[in-house]
Amino acid sequence: MREVKQKDELAPEVRPEILATTPVWQHRHILDLDDFAPAEIELVLETTDAMKEVLSRPIKKVPVLRGKTVITLFYEPSTRTRSSFELAAKNLSADVISLSAQASSTVKGESLVDTLATLEALGADIVVMRHSYSGAPYIATRHMRASMVNAGDGWHAHPTQALLDLYTIREHKGGFKGLKAVIIGDIKHSRVARSNIWGLTAMGAEVSVCCPFTLLPAGLDVVQHHFPKVHIEPEIESALCGADVVMTLRLQLERQQSGLLPSIREYVKLYQLTEARLAKAKADAIVLHPGPVNEDIEISLAVAQGPQSVINEQITNGVAVRMALLYLLAGGSR
Amino acid sequence: MITKPLLIQGGRIIDPSQGIDEVGNLVISEGKISRLGSGQASLPGSDYDVLNAEGLIVCPGFIDLHCHLRQPGFEEKETISSGSRAAARGGFTTICCMPNTNPPLDSRATIDYVKSVAASEGAVRVLPIGCISRGRKGKELAEMGELAQAGAIAFSDDGQPLRSSLLMRQAMEYSLAFGLPVIDHCEDTALSEGGQMNEGIIATRLGLCGIPAAAEESIVARDLALAELTGARLHIAHTTTEGSVELIRRAKEKGIRVTAEVTPHHLTLTEEKVLGYNTNAKVNPPLRTKRDIVALIGGLKEGVIDIIATDHAPHTGNDKLSEFALAPFGISGLETALGSLMSLVHAGELTLAMLIAKLTCGPAKIIGTGYGKLGSLETEAPAEVTIFDPNREWLVDTSDFASKGKNTPLNGEKLKGKVMATIYQGKFVYKDESLAIK
C-alpha cells in the first residue's frame, strides 16, 4: 500500500489543498475501474482539476515526475492515446521512452513477461501499455515491480479513457447521481464501453446500451454479481429518450465482414446518432465519442461537430486525467 | 529373488465390478491377487509383508481413458515416463493416451513406438488411442484396421473435432468391423472460433471471446445421429454442458450405442476460476457454470455419463506464462483427480462405490477384454490396486508433481482424499512416505 505524498513534498505549482484531503491511494497499477471505489474516482477527478489548472498556464510544466522514467509500450497502433500519455508524462517532467511491439502466437519473439523485465531493468518506473489481448496487463503485473497503466487491453478495459469521459461529464453535469447515460455501438468488442459501465455505475449513473444483438456481449440480461447492471435497449430512439449523456462508439468496419452486421448501410440506418434522434435526448444532453470518429457512420458529422458534442474537450481532458493518474501513481514511490 | 506375499490388512475393499464393499484383507502373491475377503487375516506358516490399511480404501487401480502424454513430439511438456509416473501418483494403473502427438498416432509405426517406450519406461499400463483421420487433418481416414491390429483401443482426433459429418459417418461405419469406439471431441469450431473460455458474463467482464455451450451440443447431437445411423460405438469425450447430458440421456433411452465421460475439473470447477486471467484455468472445453456441474453430477448418478477421465493435458510453465489468448488450453490432472473428486463424496453428491466404478469397471468396459480383465480385484487377476485415504487432507504443490505439467488451477489448494499407494502388476509404483510396510 502506498500513500500519497505529504503536503510539504509537493511541487508548489500543484494546488496542495486537493491532496491534503486525499484518502489513501491504494493503486500501484491502473488496470481497470472495476476495483475503483467512488471516492477513488472522485480523487482522480479532483486531481485532474489541479492538472487542468497547470495546463492553462503559459508554461505547462511541473517537476513532480522529475527523474522518473515512463515507458509507453504499444502492441497496437494508436495516435491519440499514445500522444496523450506522452504529453502528460512530459508535462510532469518525466523522462519518456516510446516503444512499439508485436504480439502474436505465430511470430515467436520476446514474450510479454521478458519484455517487461527488460523495461524494468532499464529503469522504468511506470509502464503505459496498450495491448491487443484482453488481460495482458494483468499477466504483466504478476512479474514486475514498476507501475502499470493499462492504455487499453483487447476488448477488456480502457480505464484512462473512462476516467476522462467521467471528467468531461462531470464538467458539464456537475455530478453523476441519477444521470441517464446511453452507450450506442459495438459494446461486445469495446473496452471503452466496459470501463465506462464500471465507472458510470460506480458513480451512481444509470447506463443503457444500444446495439444490434450481434454486438451485445453475453450474459448482460441475467441477474448476476460479476458485472454492473445495465439496461439493454436495441431501439435507438427509445434508448435516447431522456438521456443526459450519449456515448457513441467507433464501429470497426471489419465487423460487417465477420458477419455480425448485414451491411454498414443498415447499421447507419438503424444506429447512427443523427440530429433527429439526438432530439429525443434531453435538450442539454452531451455527446461523447472516444475517437477516432467514422464520420457519418456511427455518428453524423452534424452531431459530431454540433453544439452538444464534447469530443474535442475529451481529448484535452485526456491529457489532464493522465497527468493526474501518473502523478498519483508516482506519488507514493518516494 | 522371491518377494514375500503382501497382505493388505483391514482396509475397506471396494470393487464395484464384483459388488464388493467390505472391510477385509487382500493378499497379493506372485503379481496376482490371491485372496480377498473378510476371512482370516493371515494363514499360519506364511510369511507376509503387511500393509496396515485400516481406515483406507482398497480398490482396483484406476483407469484413465483420456490423457495426453505428449510423446513423441512435445517431450518438453510430458513424456511417457513422466506422465505414467504422474498416473501412478494419482492412483491410475492404466492410462489411454490421445494421438495428438507429433507425428500423430495414425500408423502402426507410431502406435508401436508408444507401446515400446511404455514397455521400457512406463510406470503403468499405457494404451494408445489411434487417429480417426490421417495426420489428424480431418480429410481422409487413417488406416484404422492397422491401428486396431497394432493395439489402438479406440479412434479419436481429440483436440479437434471432425468437421466433416461425412468423414465422421465413414469413420463410424469403418470402425464397426473392429468393434472399437470412435471418441469425439465435440466442438463446432465455427461457433467456438477465437473462443477462450465459457461464453457468459465472466467472459464479458474479462473481454474474452466466449465458447457457447451450443458449440459442444451441436456436435454431440450430430454424432449421436450418426451413431444411430451407423450402429457404431460412439464415446463422447469430456462432456461439459447440461444440454449435452440431456442429449446423451435421450440417445441412451433410444438404445444408441454411446458412452460418455466427464473430467474432474468440469465436475468441480466453474468458469469463475478464470477470473484474474488465470491461464491455468484455460481448458477446452472450457470450465462452465454451477448449473452445468449439477447436470453433470446428475448424469453420472443416472448412468448417462459412464466414466470419469482426466483429459490430463500437460504444458510447460512458459506455455502458460503468456497473454491469456496465446496460452494453450489444458489442465494437468492426473495427480489431483482423486483429491478433487473426493470433494463430491464428502459433499454427499456421489457415493464412494459410484466414484470408484466410474474410475475402474466403467472405463474397463469401454476398453473391453483385449488387455485382460482390467478394473477388477478378481482373484487370479493381475494385482492392480489403488489404496487411498478418503479423509487425508493435503496441499496441492505442483513442485511435487511427477508430471512435467504444473498447469493446474488447484496449486496451493487443500484437497481431502489422497492416494497412499498404487500397485501395478503386483509391485508398488507409488507409495506415500507415511505408509509403512512391516
What are the salient characteristics of this protein?
heterodimer, A: 334 residues, alpha/beta, Rossmann fold, 2 domains, 5-stranded parallel sheet, 4-stranded parallel sheet, 37% helix, disordered N terminus, B: 438 residues, Urease, subunit C, domain 1, TIM Barrel, 8-stranded mixed sheet, 13 helices, globular
How are the SSEs placed, and which strands pair?
The complex is a heterodimer of chains A (334) and B (438).
Chain A lengths: L15 H5 L17 H18 L13 E6 L5 H12 L3 E6 L11 H10 L4 E6 L4 H6 L5 E7 L5 H15 L6 E5 L6 H12 L3 E5 L20 E2 L3 H5 L4 E4 L5 H4 L6 H8 L3 H4 L7 E3 L12 H4 L6 H21 L3
Parallel strand pairs in A: 1-2, 1-3, 3-4, 5-6, 5-8, 6-7, 8-9
Helix pairs in contact in A: 2-6, 2-13, 3-13, 6-7, 6-13
Chain B lengths: L5 E10 L4 E10 L2 E6 L11 E4 L4 E4 L1 E6 L12 H10 L2 E6 L10 H14 L3 E4 L15 H7 L4 E2 L8 H11 L6 E3 L12 E2 L2 H6 L3 E2 L1 H18 L3 E3 L5 H12 L4 E5 L1 H5 L21 H13 L4 E2 L8 H4 L16 H10 L5 H8 L1 H7 L17 E11 L18 E11 L2 E5 L7
Parallel strand pairs in B: 1-4, 1-5, 6-7, 7-8, 9-10, 10-13, 11-12, 13-14, 14-15
Antiparallel strand pairs in B: 1-2, 2-3, 5-16, 16-17, 17-18
Helix pairs in contact in B: 4-6, 6-7, 7-9
Molecular structure report:
Chain A is of the alpha/beta class and 334 residues long. Chain A folds into 2 domains: 7-158 and 316-331, Rossmann fold (3-Layer(aba) Sandwich), CATH 3.40.50.1370; 159-311, Rossmann fold (3-Layer(aba) Sandwich). Chain A is built from 13 helices and 9 strands. Chain A has helices spanning 16-20, 38-55, 80-91, 112-121, 136-141, 159-173, 191-202, 236-240, 254-257, 264-271, 275-278, 301-304, 311-331; strands at residues 69-74, 95-100, 126-131, 147-153, 180-184, 206-210, 231-232, 245-248, 286-288. In chain A, the strands form 2 sheets. Chain A has a 5-stranded parallel β-sheet with strand order 7-6-5-8-9. In chain A, strands 2-1-3-4 form a 4-stranded parallel β-sheet. In chain A, strand 3 (126-131), helix 5 and strand 4 form a beta-alpha-beta unit. The two termini of chain A are 13 Å apart. With 438 residues, chain B is of the alpha/beta class. Chain B folds into 2 domains: 6-58 and 381-390 and 397-431, Urease, subunit C, domain 1, CATH 2.30.40; 61-367, TIM Barrel (Alpha-Beta Barrel). Chain B has 13 helices and 18 strands. In chain B, the strands form 4 sheets. In chain B, strands 1, 2, 3, 4, 5, 16, 17 and 18 form an 8-stranded mixed β-sheet that branches. Chain B starts with 5 loop residues before the first strand and ends in a 7-residue tail after the last strand. Chains A and B meet through helix 5 of A and helix 5 of B.
